[in-house]
Please model this.
Amino acid sequence: MKKNWLSIVLIVAAVVLAVFSWRCLPDVVTVQVGLDGRATNTLPKMAAIVIPLGLSLVGSLMSLTAKEGKNNRGIVLALAGLAVMALSLLLNH
Model:
């Protein structure tokens, strides 16, 4: 039961962060930065939001459907998607 609440919280956090990202990110989003601090790879805004949102949603759904006592790969995947969205916001501040 505890894992279900965590998965639901992660889904809500991912959607909220995606809406915030849509409002704050530029049309072309930097997704990779080189050692010199310059952008080395960019994505359109839609792709830069949908990909990590999808990771978070898939991970949360994996966790919701997993049996009790199974490993937490879904939670880790959901947290990775949230981290990618947060990093995109930081890189494009």
